[in-house]
Amino acid sequence: MKTHFRIVLPGGSGQIGNILSRHFHAQGYEVVVLARRVIPSPWRVVNWDGENLGSWTSELEHADVVMNLAGKSVDCRYTAANRRAIKESRVQTTHLLGQAIAQSRHPPRLWMNASTATIYRHALDRAMDEQTGEIGGNEPDAPAKWRFSIEVATNWERAFFDAPTPNTRKIALRSAVIMSPDRGGVFDRLLRLVRFGLGGTAASGRQFVSWIHDADFVRSIDYLIARDEIDGIVNLASPNPLPNREFMKALRQAWGTSVGLPATSWMLEIGTFFLRTETELVLKSRRVIPGRLVEDGFQFQFPEWGAAVQNLVDRRVAPAGR
């Protein structure tokens, strides 16, 4: 990879954007975040509205990588207004970036677009990789809210791959849940449950959890950037998803407690209602594996949840993380 490297992160002001921005900034690369609100940062933040072409498009000229992270958080109740915002914030920004890249005189070499491992069906029976994984939405017993998530994901990817950008390599990142010790993230919320004695098995506990440690997330991004021959769909996940029961047990052990009250499905429905989120985030079995990364030789630093969760807990309670 060349010494001077410039990455543009549309929608990069959230937790995942900050993880990536810190990573690239620490390597001395030029980082440009496109955000609706410009705040002081160690890297450059440029205003965009995610809806219209504007002066921000000049940031794409000669860029090495554009990595689109824009999209309303799915950690909310799926009301009609939120459903519309979740879908439009992903599909419209992807269309917009495709239009901007198509009009660039010197387009970026690589366009990575966020996607989601949720696109695969609810799977207890087998793992889902890029080649043999089955897209969800047609399961006879799948709740309507789960089918909505599949619809969003498929429309999101269609907008991405349909964009006419012949001079730009494209990768759709079907990412599992990214685990980092940052405040306010998924791991932080799970750890809070454990600390209050509530981090037990959710429902049957048989549903699989697909995850990726933040160190492997940024390392996999580096790897994909450097491998010019890789394009298309790539799963970003640990090669070892595990059932919720084992996942939460390992988290309790890493924290140093054996107490964790289980939660039935109806308890989860009540709890997520008051937390303004949805049970899909807990109950859907995401058994996703990174077939292409493993086949290409990528080596995970944290392939197993036991070592990964201990590292995350240690970093969370370290003086620097308080």
General description of the model:
Helix 2 runs parallel beside helix 3 (144-162), helix 4 (186-195) packs across helix 6 (244-255) and helix 6 (244-255) runs parallel beside helix 10. This protein has one domain (6-321): 3-Layer(aba) Sandwich (Rossmann fold), CATH 3.40.50. Helix 1 (15-26) links the parallel strand 1 (6-10) and strand 2 (30-35). The chain starts with 5 loop residues before the first strand and ends in a 5-residue tail after the last helix. The longest helix has 23 residues, at 80-102. The relative contact order is 0.13. Strands 3-2-1-4-5-6-10 form a seven-stranded parallel β-sheet, with helices on both faces. The chain has a two-stranded parallel ribbon with strand order 7-9. With 322 residues, the protein is of the alpha/beta class. It is 38% helix and 15% strand.
